[in-house]
Amino acid sequence: MSSSTRKNIETQSSKEFTGIELKNPATYAAGFTGVKVALQHTFKEMGAIRAIKTLSHMNQLDGFDCPGCAWPDPEHRSKLAEYCENGAKALAEEATNQIVDNTFFSNYSVQEMSRWSDYKIGKSGRLVAPMILKPGSNHYQEITWEDAFRLIADHLHALSNPDEAIFYTSGRSSNEAAFLYGLFARAFGTNNMPDCSNMCHESSGVGLSQTLGIGKGSVKLEDFDKAEVVMVIGQNPGTNHPRMLSALEKCKANGGKIISVNPLQEAGLIRFRNPQGLSGMLLNGQGLTDIYLQVKINQDVALLKLIEKKLAALDKVDKKVFDHEFIVNYTEGYESLIVHLDKHTEQELLELCGVEEKLINEAVTLLAKKSRIIICWAMGLTQHKNGVENIKECVNLLLLKGSLGKPGSGTCPVRGHSNVQGDRSVGIMHYVSKELNAAIKNTFGFDAPDHEGVDVVKAIPAMYEGKSKVFICLGGNFVSAASDTEYTAKAVQNCDLTIQISTKLNRSHLITGKTALILPALGRSDKDVKDGEKRHLTVENSMGIVHQSKGFLDPISDDIKSEPEIIAGIAAAYFREVHPVKWKSLGSNYELLREKLGEVISGFKDLNTKSEGSGYYLPNNVRNLDFSKLPNQRAQFSMTELPIHNLNENEYLLMSIRSHDQFNTTIYGLNDRYRGIHNERRVLFMNETDMARENFKKMDVVNIMSNYQGQERKVFQFLVIPYHIPQTNLAAYFPEINPLIPIHEYAEKSNTPISKSVKVSLEKAD
Ligand SMILES: Nc1nc2c(c(=O)[nH]1)N[C@H]1C(S)=C(S)[C@@H](COP(=O)(O)OP(=O)(O)OC[C@H]3O[C@@H](n4cnc5c(=O)[nH]c(N)nc54)[C@H](O)[C@@H]3O)O[C@H]1N2
Ligand SMILES: Nc1nc2c(c(=O)[nH]1)N[C@H]1C(S)=C(S)[C@@H](COP(=O)(O)OP(=O)(O)OC[C@H]3O[C@@H](n4cnc5c(=O)[nH]c(N)nc54)[C@H](O)[C@@H]3O)O[C@H]1N2
Ligand code: SF4
Ligand SMILES: [Mo]
């Protein structure tokens, strides 16, 4: 068959229903069911003995870091179980006994697999050998590592300028691999380094850098023990950062209060039964949220402004509500903010946010009296057109209260992938850092490019328009994770060569360039042995602690390489070792690699020794109240605007959310236990009043349409589920609805796609 026929392969998972079963949404997270489900997953994928042995090494000081989320580990580790249900599922997914080998690829054509659901594709097993999909062919076949490296080098040499190549990174890789990858991209001559962070916490990075001078959070895990109030806004920790619930539980045990801000009443935020604690298993668990503010989608700025306005009114009477000493000593823009808050009336803001005033007043009364406040957030704030402003409004509140740089207070953007923060720290970014370029020149003697590269939303049109022709992915599933699936698929298919360095098969291995390569990589749990010596790598968690991670399992095939080795293999083939960087030795000698990393990036100096044990904290200026890099050396208040949506009568705002049984595009199973959905993913959560207006009944089948700038996009066949969600708001799972998100709709300044506020309308399906 010709390569043009291959272009017809499907970009969406199956539209068939899988047999839904509805139950009441849960009112608590974890408990015994959590433990049971975790063990079921690992036993099924890994076998019982292998699973139990491996789990006992996860998140231990001499073990490997959980391949799930970026939540930090406590200082004192429980030898019994230092992980959660979703960490166990992440391990099971990586360490499965199933393999995808040459026979598998002979049996199934790319065309056939592209019609499988993401769930089925992922369940095929671990990639065990390098594979190539040649132009015009419909079956992957084996290729040697040497030939694969040579092919990549030949393609890179054939480009007319380095910006014709794009180097994507997902947040699973190690600091060492990411550093080497970034170094190679720069040595090759491009800053085209989009990464998953562009679709994730980029708005946090931009918002925090502009106001506080660092794109990361400021809290440490122990701050949760001391906080008087923790606000959890736009985040679903029960599913996505389950061990954060233990931190919230501890906060409450010490007398702290929790305010949750979310359009949905998420089970994990209501009540928690700690599977590690006896009380959780036997008793009713810990009620977590004290004040639940069920805000409308993307009306957090309105809600926060209203809270600030009410606090400002109290502060006029009692000058102790705001921390005036802190404001005078460390901030800029207070007076302007106070004037700006008068731009809207309380009534206006109240109507916009849709929250009961009595509950807002309770939150205001609580916040007025407290100063040790932490604000935690994730995708519910970042993935909107005004994602950056959402973050700035949170910072405003913390600045007013002086809740920075002291125990029990601060910013807590809760990161997604386990090393997404580390990737950025070691140089994965599309913009130019003069400091980094100078350090590279100093250590390695070459000039890194000084013009900006593409991020995710700019990379896709570059490929679509034929400006970029070689696309390399260090992990991830770009086609499914990015917005505008059909457009993104065409963009990727336009490339001459696409390369996936990955552990598991996914849709991005099936929607490819004219030639495609799969390069299988060791995962976190895999033992990495060189000349009989076990090697380790390092990662950085969500709170800026850098520590070691050492794999435990014998790799499932001898033909899998570590990520640094793969990157070094490509680089050495490209430069033919005629380059100031000795790629091969850096790729195999991790101690040397860490030494060089420490020379280039200051926080990583002495990494070899400092990352031992529970690791060390990277420097963080907010913790020291050092705002010297900001205008007038002060933290900045921001004047944000309210978002504008102008919904017509038949229009809704749709947020794409994660079920309890997935890690991004990896689908562990078909249940969303906490929300009462079993055995189905094609569901649409809808308010009952809206359903009545549309004349929809429970389980009616609908299509969802978005229409931006006259272009209609549509996804088909979703079951309507009546749910406790604000009117005019809808929710459905990512990545199923990604075809609805237009490529050119993203947050101002951070370019994060608007995955949480897509304007849509509905129609009954035939
Ligand atoms: N098990 C598991 N763990 C994961 C992941 C996973 O897929 N599975 N993914 C990892 C990654 S990469 C990331 S980035 C994180 C994501 O972690 P989360 O951000 O918790 O994930 P989402 O499901 O996107 O949930 C967003 C939450 O924000 C709420 N929300 C949506 N829109 C708004 C809004 O406008 N305002 C407010 N206040 N709330 C809103 C939703 O109701 C939902 O509760 O999790 C990481 N951890
Ligand atoms: N609509 C919508 N879209 C979204 C989001 C949303 O909330 N809504 N969330 C966005 C967010 S927050 C993110 S972070 C992105 C995620 O985007 P990505 O990071 O690109 O996607 P993942 O699904 O996490 O990638 C999973 C794949 O990574 C590979 N992998 C796993 N472990 C390893 C490893 O150790 N090494 C290597 N080399 N490969 C590995 C496996 O092949 C697996 O199939 O999606 C974004 N897209
Ligand atoms: S909270 Fe995150 S890092 Fe910790 S065990 Fe669970 S999935 Fe893994
Ligand atoms: Mo993410």
Compact overview of the structure:
The chain has 766 residues and is α/β, with parallel strands linked by helices.
Structural description of this entry:
It is a single chain. With 766 residues, this protein is of the alpha/beta class. It has three domains: 118-197 and 422-617, 3-Layer(aba) Sandwich (Rossmann fold), CATH 3.40.50; 202-413, Dimethylsulfoxide Reductase, domain 2 (3-Layer(aba) Sandwich), CATH 3.40.228; 652-764, Barwin-like endoglucanases (Beta Barrel). Helix content is 36%, strand content 17%. It is built from 32 helices and 33 strands. β30 and β31 (711-722) form a beta hairpin. The longest helix is centred in the middle third of the chain and has 18 residues, at 300-317. The structure holds ligand MGD (2 copies), iron/sulfur cluster (SF4) and molybdenum atom. The site of iron/sulfur cluster (SF4) has 12 residues, from α4.
